[in-house]
Amino acid sequence: MPLQRIITRAARLVLSVTVLAALFVAGARAQPTERAPDTMEARLLACAPCHGKVGEGTSNDYFPRLAGKPAGYLYNQLVAFHEGRRRYPPMNYLLEFLPDTYLHKMAEYYAEQRPPLPPRPIPIVSKEVLARGQSIVTHGDPQRGVPACAGCHGPSFTGMEPAIPGLVGLNARYISAQLGAWRYGTRTAAAPDCMQIVAGLLTEADVTAVAAYLSSLPIPADPAPVPQGTLAMPLACGSEPH
Ligand code: HEC
Ligand code: HEC
Q1: CA–centroid distance, residue 50 to ligand 1 (Å)
Q2: What pTM does this model have?
Q3: Ligand 1: distance of its center to the CA of 51 in Å?
Q4: How confident is the model at residue 20 (pLDDT cuts 50, 70, 90)?
Q5: How far apart are CA 151 and CA 188, in angstroms?
Q6: Cα–Cα dist 208/3, whole Å
Q7: What burial class does residue 9 get, using C-beta atoms within 10 Å of its C-beta: 0-12 exposed, 13-18 middle, 19+ buried?
Q8: How far apart, in whole angstroms, are the C-alpha atoms of residue 184 and residue 196?
Q9: Of 56, 84, 105, 196, which has the most beta carbons under 10 Å away?
Protein backbone atom coordinates (compact mmCIF):
# COMPACT_ATOMS: atom_id res chain seq x y z
CA MET A 1 0.00 0.00 0.00
CA PRO A 2 1.52 3.33 -1.12
CA LEU A 3 0.42 5.24 1.98
CA GLN A 4 2.13 2.69 4.23
CA ARG A 5 5.29 2.96 2.10
CA ILE A 6 5.26 6.73 2.49
CA ILE A 7 4.90 6.39 6.24
CA THR A 8 7.76 3.86 6.35
CA ARG A 9 9.97 6.19 4.27
CA ALA A 10 9.11 9.11 6.52
CA ALA A 11 9.89 7.04 9.57
CA ARG A 12 13.26 6.02 8.09
CA LEU A 13 14.07 9.62 7.31
CA VAL A 14 13.23 10.71 10.85
CA LEU A 15 15.35 7.86 12.15
CA SER A 16 18.38 8.76 10.04
CA VAL A 17 18.07 12.44 10.93
CA THR A 18 17.93 11.47 14.60
CA VAL A 19 21.00 9.26 14.23
CA LEU A 20 22.88 12.01 12.42
CA ALA A 21 21.88 14.53 15.06
CA ALA A 22 23.00 12.18 17.81
CA LEU A 23 26.33 11.62 16.07
CA PHE A 24 26.73 15.35 15.63
CA VAL A 25 26.08 16.00 19.32
CA ALA A 26 28.45 13.19 20.28
CA GLY A 27 31.05 14.67 17.96
CA ALA A 28 30.61 18.10 19.50
CA ARG A 29 30.95 16.59 22.98
CA ALA A 30 34.20 14.93 21.95
CA GLN A 31 35.73 18.37 21.29
CA PRO A 32 38.49 18.92 23.88
CA THR A 33 36.90 22.18 25.06
CA GLU A 34 33.68 20.37 26.08
CA ARG A 35 35.28 17.46 27.97
CA ALA A 36 34.85 17.00 31.73
CA PRO A 37 37.93 18.36 33.55
CA ASP A 38 40.70 15.74 33.56
CA THR A 39 41.64 16.01 37.26
CA MET A 40 43.18 13.28 39.38
CA GLU A 41 39.90 13.16 41.38
CA ALA A 42 37.96 12.43 38.17
CA ARG A 43 40.41 9.71 37.18
CA LEU A 44 40.22 8.07 40.60
CA LEU A 45 36.40 7.81 40.57
CA ALA A 46 36.82 4.19 39.47
CA CYS A 47 38.79 3.47 42.64
CA ALA A 48 36.47 5.28 45.08
CA PRO A 49 33.78 2.59 45.60
CA CYS A 50 36.39 0.30 47.14
CA HIS A 51 39.03 2.65 48.58
CA GLY A 52 36.97 5.76 49.41
CA LYS A 53 36.98 9.14 47.66
CA VAL A 54 40.52 10.06 48.74
CA GLY A 55 41.68 6.58 49.75
CA GLU A 56 40.35 6.86 53.31
CA GLY A 57 38.95 3.31 53.23
CA THR A 58 35.34 2.15 53.48
CA SER A 59 33.20 0.18 55.91
CA ASN A 60 34.02 -2.97 53.89
CA ASP A 61 35.97 -5.37 56.12
CA TYR A 62 38.60 -6.15 53.48
CA PHE A 63 39.31 -3.21 51.13
CA PRO A 64 42.46 -1.39 52.31
CA ARG A 65 42.94 2.27 53.21
CA LEU A 66 45.50 3.91 50.87
CA ALA A 67 45.66 7.49 52.20
CA GLY A 68 48.96 8.55 53.73
CA LYS A 69 50.97 5.45 52.83
CA PRO A 70 54.38 6.34 51.35
CA ALA A 71 54.19 7.05 47.61
CA GLY A 72 57.04 4.61 46.90
CA TYR A 73 55.13 1.81 48.62
CA LEU A 74 51.86 2.55 46.78
CA TYR A 75 53.70 2.77 43.47
CA ASN A 76 55.38 -0.62 44.09
CA GLN A 77 51.95 -2.18 44.70
CA LEU A 78 50.42 -0.62 41.57
CA VAL A 79 53.31 -1.99 39.49
CA ALA A 80 52.88 -5.43 41.12
CA PHE A 81 49.14 -5.46 40.24
CA HIS A 82 49.90 -4.10 36.75
CA GLU A 83 52.40 -6.90 36.13
CA GLY A 84 50.20 -9.53 37.81
CA ARG A 85 52.75 -10.27 40.59
CA ARG A 86 50.10 -9.31 43.14
CA ARG A 87 46.66 -10.74 42.31
CA TYR A 88 43.22 -9.27 42.81
CA PRO A 89 41.32 -9.46 39.51
CA PRO A 90 39.42 -6.12 39.65
CA MET A 91 42.70 -4.29 40.42
CA ASN A 92 44.69 -6.23 37.82
CA TYR A 93 42.04 -5.40 35.22
CA LEU A 94 41.82 -1.69 36.10
CA LEU A 95 45.58 -1.20 36.03
CA GLU A 96 46.39 -3.37 33.03
CA PHE A 97 46.49 -0.58 30.44
CA LEU A 98 47.59 2.37 32.56
CA PRO A 99 50.98 3.87 31.73
CA ASP A 100 53.75 4.14 34.32
CA THR A 101 53.55 7.95 34.70
CA TYR A 102 49.92 7.51 35.63
CA LEU A 103 50.74 4.91 38.31
CA HIS A 104 53.27 7.37 39.80
CA LYS A 105 50.69 10.17 39.89
CA MET A 106 48.02 8.02 41.54
CA ALA A 107 50.53 6.86 44.18
CA GLU A 108 51.58 10.46 44.89
CA TYR A 109 47.98 11.60 45.14
CA TYR A 110 46.96 9.02 47.74
CA ALA A 111 50.22 9.46 49.71
CA GLU A 112 49.41 13.15 50.26
CA GLN A 113 45.87 12.61 51.61
CA ARG A 114 45.18 12.87 55.36
CA PRO A 115 41.47 11.98 55.73
CA PRO A 116 39.96 10.73 59.01
CA LEU A 117 39.15 7.05 59.37
CA PRO A 118 35.60 6.05 58.34
CA PRO A 119 33.62 3.80 60.76
CA ARG A 120 34.83 0.21 60.50
CA PRO A 121 34.12 -3.24 61.90
CA ILE A 122 35.81 -3.78 65.28
CA PRO A 123 37.38 -7.21 65.77
CA ILE A 124 35.81 -9.18 68.61
CA VAL A 125 38.66 -10.87 70.48
CA SER A 126 39.58 -11.30 74.14
CA LYS A 127 41.77 -8.85 76.10
CA GLU A 128 44.47 -11.53 76.21
CA VAL A 129 44.56 -11.79 72.42
CA LEU A 130 44.81 -7.99 72.07
CA ALA A 131 47.62 -7.91 74.67
CA ARG A 132 49.48 -10.67 72.80
CA GLY A 133 49.09 -8.69 69.57
CA GLN A 134 50.39 -5.51 71.21
CA SER A 135 53.38 -7.37 72.62
CA ILE A 136 54.38 -8.84 69.22
CA VAL A 137 53.99 -5.61 67.26
CA THR A 138 55.95 -3.52 69.79
CA HIS A 139 58.55 -6.04 71.08
CA GLY A 140 58.40 -9.02 68.73
CA ASP A 141 58.97 -12.48 70.23
CA PRO A 142 62.75 -12.62 70.83
CA GLN A 143 62.71 -16.30 71.90
CA ARG A 144 61.32 -17.33 68.51
CA GLY A 145 63.29 -14.72 66.54
CA VAL A 146 60.18 -12.69 65.60
CA PRO A 147 61.23 -9.04 65.09
CA ALA A 148 59.04 -6.19 66.39
CA CYS A 149 56.78 -4.87 63.63
CA ALA A 150 57.45 -1.35 65.00
CA GLY A 151 61.13 -1.83 64.07
CA CYS A 152 60.20 -1.22 60.43
CA HIS A 153 56.61 0.07 60.42
CA GLY A 154 57.41 2.84 62.94
CA PRO A 155 56.66 3.40 66.65
CA SER A 156 53.09 4.48 65.85
CA PHE A 157 52.76 2.17 62.79
CA THR A 158 52.57 4.96 60.23
CA GLY A 159 55.32 3.40 58.06
CA MET A 160 58.67 4.76 56.84
CA GLU A 161 59.55 6.60 53.66
CA PRO A 162 59.89 5.63 50.91
CA ALA A 163 58.46 2.08 50.78
CA ILE A 164 57.27 0.72 54.16
CA PRO A 165 53.50 1.12 54.60
CA GLY A 166 51.66 2.25 57.69
CA LEU A 167 49.56 -0.49 59.32
CA VAL A 168 46.97 1.78 60.95
CA GLY A 169 43.52 2.10 59.41
CA LEU A 170 43.57 -1.44 57.96
CA ASN A 171 41.00 -4.09 58.81
CA ALA A 172 41.91 -7.29 60.64
CA ARG A 173 40.73 -9.45 57.75
CA TYR A 174 42.95 -7.57 55.29
CA ILE A 175 46.03 -7.74 57.55
CA SER A 176 45.69 -11.47 58.18
CA ALA A 177 45.03 -12.11 54.47
CA GLN A 178 48.23 -10.27 53.50
CA LEU A 179 50.33 -12.13 56.08
CA GLY A 180 48.77 -15.36 54.79
CA ALA A 181 49.58 -14.38 51.19
CA TRP A 182 53.27 -14.00 52.11
CA ARG A 183 53.25 -17.27 54.02
CA TYR A 184 51.76 -19.10 51.02
CA GLY A 185 53.85 -17.23 48.44
CA THR A 186 51.00 -15.49 46.58
CA ARG A 187 52.30 -12.03 47.55
CA THR A 188 55.96 -11.22 47.05
CA ALA A 189 58.05 -8.04 47.25
CA ALA A 190 61.55 -7.11 46.03
CA ALA A 191 64.28 -9.46 47.36
CA PRO A 192 65.26 -9.81 50.09
CA ASP A 193 61.54 -10.11 50.84
CA CYS A 194 61.69 -9.33 54.56
CA MET A 195 57.91 -9.68 55.00
CA GLN A 196 58.07 -13.25 53.72
CA ILE A 197 60.59 -14.02 56.48
CA VAL A 198 58.55 -12.19 59.14
CA ALA A 199 55.24 -13.78 58.10
CA GLY A 200 56.88 -17.22 58.03
CA LEU A 201 57.86 -16.84 61.70
CA LEU A 202 54.29 -16.15 62.83
CA THR A 203 51.81 -18.83 63.96
CA GLU A 204 48.10 -18.64 63.08
CA ALA A 205 47.43 -17.42 66.62
CA ASP A 206 50.08 -14.66 66.25
CA VAL A 207 48.47 -13.52 62.98
CA THR A 208 45.03 -13.31 64.60
CA ALA A 209 46.47 -11.36 67.53
CA VAL A 210 48.52 -8.81 65.54
CA ALA A 211 45.70 -8.28 63.03
CA ALA A 212 43.17 -7.66 65.81
CA TYR A 213 45.49 -5.33 67.74
CA LEU A 214 46.61 -3.26 64.71
CA SER A 215 43.06 -2.86 63.44
CA SER A 216 41.94 -1.57 66.85
CA LEU A 217 44.37 1.40 66.74
CA PRO A 218 43.14 4.91 65.91
CA ILE A 219 44.95 7.04 63.31
CA PRO A 220 47.65 8.87 65.33
CA ALA A 221 47.68 12.69 65.55
CA ASP A 222 50.64 12.77 63.14
CA PRO A 223 49.79 10.16 60.49
CA ALA A 224 52.89 10.86 58.34
CA PRO A 225 55.35 8.01 57.69
CA VAL A 226 58.69 8.55 59.52
CA PRO A 227 61.53 9.85 57.29
CA GLN A 228 63.79 7.42 55.42
CA GLY A 229 66.57 5.97 57.60
CA THR A 230 64.88 6.86 60.95
CA LEU A 231 64.50 3.20 62.00
CA ALA A 232 67.30 0.67 62.47
CA MET A 233 65.27 -2.16 60.78
CA PRO A 234 65.98 -5.64 62.21
CA LEU A 235 66.22 -7.17 58.68
CA ALA A 236 67.06 -5.82 55.23
CA CYS A 237 64.14 -5.30 52.82
CA GLY A 238 64.64 -5.17 49.05
CA SER A 239 61.92 -2.56 48.66
CA GLU A 240 63.49 -0.12 51.15
CA PRO A 241 66.78 1.52 50.03
CA HIS A 242 69.44 1.87 52.72
C1 HEC B 1 36.48 -3.70 43.36
C2 HEC B 1 37.18 -2.99 44.39
C3 HEC B 1 38.45 -2.25 44.02
C4 HEC B 1 38.62 -1.28 43.06
C5 HEC B 1 37.60 -0.74 42.06
C6 HEC B 1 39.99 -0.81 43.20
N7 HEC B 1 40.62 -1.51 44.20
FE8 HEC B 1 42.52 -1.24 44.81
N9 HEC B 1 42.37 -2.85 46.05
C10 HEC B 1 41.22 -3.55 46.28
C11 HEC B 1 41.51 -4.69 47.15
C12 HEC B 1 40.51 -5.73 47.67
C13 HEC B 1 42.90 -4.64 47.43
C14 HEC B 1 43.71 -5.64 48.23
C15 HEC B 1 43.95 -6.83 47.31
C16 HEC B 1 44.72 -7.94 47.94
O17 HEC B 1 45.95 -7.91 47.91
O18 HEC B 1 44.08 -8.85 48.45
C19 HEC B 1 43.40 -3.44 46.74
C20 HEC B 1 44.70 -2.99 46.82
C21 HEC B 1 45.14 -1.78 46.31
C22 HEC B 1 46.44 -1.19 46.58
C23 HEC B 1 47.50 -1.76 47.51
C24 HEC B 1 47.17 -1.31 48.92
C25 HEC B 1 48.17 -1.72 49.95
O26 HEC B 1 48.12 -1.15 51.05
O27 HEC B 1 49.00 -2.59 49.70
C28 HEC B 1 46.51 -0.01 45.88
C29 HEC B 1 47.66 0.97 45.86
C30 HEC B 1 45.25 0.13 45.17
N31 HEC B 1 44.44 -0.95 45.47
C32 HEC B 1 44.92 1.20 44.32
C33 HEC B 1 43.77 1.25 43.54
C34 HEC B 1 43.54 2.22 42.48
C35 HEC B 1 44.49 3.34 42.12
C36 HEC B 1 42.33 1.92 41.94
C37 HEC B 1 41.63 2.62 40.77
C38 HEC B 1 42.37 2.69 39.54
C39 HEC B 1 41.80 0.78 42.65
N40 HEC B 1 42.70 0.39 43.61
C41 HEC B 1 40.56 0.19 42.42
C42 HEC B 1 39.96 -3.27 45.77
C43 HEC B 1 39.73 -2.39 44.72
C1 HEC C 1 62.36 -5.76 58.42
C2 HEC C 1 61.29 -4.77 58.25
C3 HEC C 1 59.88 -5.23 58.56
C4 HEC C 1 59.41 -5.84 59.70
C5 HEC C 1 60.19 -6.24 60.95
C6 HEC C 1 57.99 -5.99 59.51
N7 HEC C 1 57.62 -5.49 58.29
FE8 HEC C 1 55.74 -5.55 57.47
N9 HEC C 1 56.44 -4.69 55.75
C10 HEC C 1 57.76 -4.36 55.51
C11 HEC C 1 57.88 -3.91 54.13
C12 HEC C 1 59.15 -3.45 53.46
C13 HEC C 1 56.57 -3.97 53.58
C14 HEC C 1 56.18 -3.63 52.12
C15 HEC C 1 56.41 -4.84 51.24
C16 HEC C 1 55.91 -4.61 49.84
O17 HEC C 1 56.46 -3.74 49.16
O18 HEC C 1 54.96 -5.28 49.44
C19 HEC C 1 55.69 -4.47 54.62
C20 HEC C 1 54.33 -4.68 54.45
C21 HEC C 1 53.49 -5.19 55.44
C22 HEC C 1 52.07 -5.38 55.27
C23 HEC C 1 51.23 -5.05 54.05
C24 HEC C 1 50.48 -3.76 54.31
C25 HEC C 1 49.51 -3.41 53.21
O26 HEC C 1 49.01 -2.28 53.22
O27 HEC C 1 49.23 -4.26 52.34
C28 HEC C 1 51.60 -5.90 56.44
C29 HEC C 1 50.17 -6.27 56.78
C30 HEC C 1 52.74 -6.01 57.33
N31 HEC C 1 53.87 -5.58 56.70
C32 HEC C 1 52.64 -6.48 58.63
C33 HEC C 1 53.74 -6.66 59.49
C34 HEC C 1 53.63 -7.23 60.81
C35 HEC C 1 52.34 -7.68 61.47
C36 HEC C 1 54.91 -7.26 61.32
C37 HEC C 1 55.37 -7.78 62.65
C38 HEC C 1 55.01 -9.15 63.00
C39 HEC C 1 55.79 -6.70 60.31
N40 HEC C 1 55.04 -6.35 59.20
C41 HEC C 1 57.14 -6.57 60.43
C42 HEC C 1 58.80 -4.44 56.41
C43 HEC C 1 58.74 -5.02 57.66
Answers
A1: 7
A2: 0.88
A3: 7
A4: very low
A5: 20
A6: 79
A7: exposed
A8: 9
A9: 56
